[in-house]
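Priority: low. Protein: Extracellular protein. Input follows.
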Amino acid sequence: MKKLAVLTASLIAAFSLMGLGVVNQTKASASTTVAAGSPSLSVNKIYTTTTKVTGKATKGVKVIVESSKKKALASATASKTTGAYSVKLPAKQKAGTKLYVYAKNTKTGRYFYRIITVQKKTTTTSTKKTTTSKTTKSSSSSKKSTSASFKVSTPTGTWNSTSSKGYKMKFVFSQKTGLNEYVIKGKKTAHVLKNATYSVTPKTTTFWKINVKAKDGKKSTFYMRFTAKNKFVLVNSKNQKIKTSVGKAPAAYYTFKLA
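Result:
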């Protein structure tokens, strides 16, 4: 009996020195198995939307992901500087699926593994909806704030345009003399519309329709959008900025500023 006991003790010691994973295994939890002298391994939660298994392990060890049938799905090597790893899965996993994640030292044969159950992702969708809703409201508030930051009650005054190919325009709105339009190039000025009657139809606080009737009875319409209290651009009926030509001035995007 003494010889048998000595032989058994010798065999255990021999297996321990070899560092095989089956020797001195202890369970850390229901889903964690630890082999003596094995590498360390942590695994982040795996959801039905997960495409990569991530976590940290002993630096430089091989990380292997296997199915519950012990079929290898994918593998990667933990960083030699941080121990971080990322193993790309061949496909997303179903809820309740058990994955075996191994950290293995290929030189010593020692290993460590965790059994991870795939969880159903239920909170992400509602969180995203809430965030989107808040963003939309914030955007709407911003727009309202911008449109209400200035107020224009009348176009009365002299408005000078930006230039295009040396040409500039000048619109003069007056309750006494009506609407007068000028085209200016260098020192030359052409008076293209004289003392026309006009009326203003506000579409919004900054988007206006201008109805014009020239002295010869010819009627016309144009639209303006105020971008500031003292600036406007010419637009179409859909409030879209357009190129405009008056007299000999070339068609271009002009911005008018109150003199």
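Residues 1-33, 129-146 have pLDDT under 50 and may be disordered. The chain is about 15% helix and 40% strand.
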